[in-house]
Design brief:
A four-stranded antiparallel sheet has the order 2-3-1-4. The chain is of the alpha+beta class. It has seven helices and four strands; from the N terminus they run βααβααβααβα. 39% of the residues lie in helices and 20% in strands. The protein binds uridine-5'-diphosphate and magnesium ion. The site of uridine-5'-diphosphate (UDP) has 9 residues, from loops.
Length: 142
């Protein structure tokens, strides 16, 4: 498998419950390496920019309110097949439908407050990593 990078966010619900360490532990245990990391509190405009692809969705307003309701931990992970590895660790969008042992099943609150974000494809990973990190912020780990 090719070495990839993916953009992960520990969302406000998980940061508020002190689950950053637990979530990063799961990622590191699966072999993902931290290439860049930031802890920050998004503004509404920044959250809207990040989720711009969902602008027309009915949940967009609530989602972007929630994403700026508290701080988030943003991490670029690197590893073989990192995009699929991280999506697999997260599980389905709705915690009620996610497989046991996944982050969203084990830790998520509901379909909105589902504890983590993960890029869904190489193109979105590149765009999303660039939203938060410059080239100088990113450390090669392979
Ligand atoms: N979301 C929501 N209601 C929905 C679907 C999604 O509030 O019915 C939120 C949820 O926080 C999700 C995010 O919007 O993680 C982005 O949705 P997407 O379909 O991209 O899911 P993901 O890629 O995060 O699994
Ligand atoms: Mg998505």
């Amino acid at each position: 498998m090719a070495t990839e990078r993916t953009l992960a966010i520990v969302k406000p619900d998980a940061v508020a419950r002190n689950l950053v360490g637990e979530i990063l532990r799961r990622a590191e245990s699966a072999g993902l390496r931290i290439a860049a990391a930031r802890f920050l509190h998004l503004t509404k405009v920044e959250a809207e920019g990040f989720y711009a692809v969902h602008r027309e969705r009915p949940f967009f307003s609530d989602l972007t309110d929630y994403m700026c309701s508290g701080p988030v931990m943003v991490v670029a992970f690197e590893g073989d097949g990192a995009i699929a590895t991280w999506r697999g660790l997260m599980g389905a969008t709705d915690p009620a439908k996610a497989e046991p042992g996944t982050i969203r099943k084990d830790l998520g609150v509901n379909v909105e407050q589902n504890s983590t974000h993960g890029s869904d494809a190489p193109e979105t990973a590149q765009t999303e990593i660039g939203y938060f990190f410059t080239a100088l912020d990113q450390v090669a780990r392979n």
